[in-house]
Design brief:
about 95% helix; about 0% strand; mainly alpha
């Protein structure tokens, strides 16, 4: 389950980074003024989301095991460096926009300033629109963050349940091992008693053989003695 969630975060991260990189390299050079500012804010939002996804992937990386974790760890380092690089490029683009606006005002002078005052209301409405856009984007980010927290909580509960089942299985296996050990000890006790009984029977058998042999020797001796006495008379 952790691997599936990690892959989902990674896919979403790849899409965000691709969109931000395309905007920085292809779209922004063609824009100026308010459109460029809006594009830069959208890029910053995407990079913030991408950085948040990297944090989520780091959390899921701790749940991975063995070769999966070994393969994912180098990609995490690459993603961190990639986001930082894109953020630096975005800051450079924002600084370029500020320099462009300052140079434009210096060249156009007071006339440009008066034109800017006449278009203030239009810019204010544009700023309001941008503000609403940022609020909506913030709400979307909060919703995605809440969803990720819910997913992480669900995974934690599932992991806890799996851990409890494993503990129950281990407890049952321990009981089986203890029972098996008790049976083996009882078997060893029976074997010891059987060996003692066999040794006792062996000793008795040897004793009986010795007694029988002795009786035979005595009987033969008596017969020979009687036979000798008769011969001597």
């Amino acid at each position: 389950m952790s691997l599936d969630l990690f892959n989902n975060y990674e896919s979403e991260y790849t899409s965000l980074v691709a969109a931000a990189r395309n905007r920085l390299t292809a779209t922004l050079p063609e824009l100026s003024g308010t459109s460029r500012s809006t594009a830069l804010r959208e890029t910053d939002r995407e990079l913030e989301d991408a950085q948040e996804l990297v944090g989520q992937m780091e959390m899921e990386l701790l749940s991975l095991q063995g070769p999966e974790r070994s393969r994912a760890a180098p990609r995490m380092r690459q993603y961190k460096a990639e986001v930082e690089q894109l953020k630096r490029e975005a800051r450079k683009a924002a600084q370029g926009l500020g320099n462009y606006e300052n140079n434009r005002r210096a060249l156009l002078g007071d006339a440009a300033a008066r034109i800017g005052e006449n278009s203030a209301s239009a810019e204010d409405s544009s700023l309001d629109s941008d503000h609403r856009t940022r609020l909506l984007s913030g709400n979307e980010r909060l919703e995605r963050g809440s969803q990720r927290l819910q997913d992480s909580h669900r995974i934690a509960i599932e992991t806890e349940a799996v851990g409890a089942n494993i503990l129950n299985d281990l407890r049952a296996q321990r009981e089986q091992i203890v029972n098996t050990r008790d049976v083996l000890l009882q078997g060893e006790s029976h074997i010891d008693r059987s060996q003692r009984t066999l040794r006792t029977m062996t000793r008795r058998l040897l004793t009986n053989k010795m007694i029988t042999t002795g009786l035979i020797v005595v009987g033969v001796s008596l017969v020979l003695l009687i036979f000798y006495i008769k011969l001597t008379r």
